[in-house]
Amino acid sequence: MADIRVKICGLRSLADMDAVVAARAAYAGFVFFPKSPRNLTLDQARALVLASPPGLAKVALTVDADDAALDALMDAVPLDMLQLHGHESAARVAYVRARYGLPVMKAIGVADASDLAGLTDYALAADQILIDAKPPKGADLPGGNGLSFDWRLLVGRKWLRPWMLAGGLTPDNVADAIRLTGARQVDVSSGVESAPGVKDPAKIAAFVEAAL
Ligand SMILES: O=C(O)c1ccccc1N[C@@H]1O[C@H](COP(=O)(O)O)[C@@H](O)[C@H]1O
Question: N-(5'phosphoribosyl) anthranilate isomerase (PRAI) domain: which residues (predicted)?
Fold first, then answer.
């Protein structure tokens, strides 16, 4: 069995958490972005995190959050990692990492090769890199749109940091994505839902099974 680590993002209920634990995913993601159908309050997230087993890494996804918002998040929710999914600069990533002492994963939206040009600066600032599809112009969400990109852009790339592949992954395509890109970690949100923001336990199980 290949040692692939799976992140299921956008959990909203104890049933979601149970499905993620049963499927043996490595990471559980919680979204803090009001425009998202997966958005959680701090109290909701705290309750979910406190109900989760210790071996599961709890990741908070924020979008261009300021210090006050991150301070409130850190005070309320015990976390293992921060996922910065906005337009944060490499300097901001390094600052957040130092301020909170938590591993930081920076998301990079990719549509073509030019989007990978600034990767080295981000890799030096972050603990992990998340490669996601770039959202369409005018999209409400910078991620979680169920869109993929041309995975061939990543073939043969040398990585300075651990990285995770995201964007339009599903139980049906994740094995191909892993084979083509060499990803050791994958992240999914829409692809394991029955409707926006509604996780499907059977799809979560099928996704992790296909990835492993
Ligand atoms: O899931 C969301 O609602 C979301 C909102 C804002 C930024 C990112 C979001 N999700 C992340 O997007 C990618 C890809 O998601 P999908 O599988 O294509 O739906 C993933 O990293 C999610 O963590």
Answer: 6-209
Number of domains in the chain: 1
- Residue 43: active-site member: no
Q: Are residues 81 and 107 in contact, defined by beta-carbon separation less than 8 angstroms?
A: no
Cα-to-centroid distance, 142 and ligand 1 (Å): 7
Task: Kindly report the pTM of this predicted structure.
Answer: 0.95
Query: Which tokens go with 128?
Result: 């992990």
Torsional sign, CA 4, 28, 194, 181: negative
**Residue 30 belongs to what domain range?**
5-211
60 lines ligand 1 (CB under 6 A): no
For 83-121, give one letter per residue: b (16+ CB within 10 A) or e.
Answer: bbbeebebebbbebbeebebbbbbbbbbeeeebeeebee
pLDDT 10s digits, 6-48: 999 999 999 999 999 999 999 999 999 999 999 999 999 999 9
CATH, residue 178: 3.20.20.70
3-state secondary structure of 155: coil
Is residue 1 pLDDT above 50, yes or no?
no
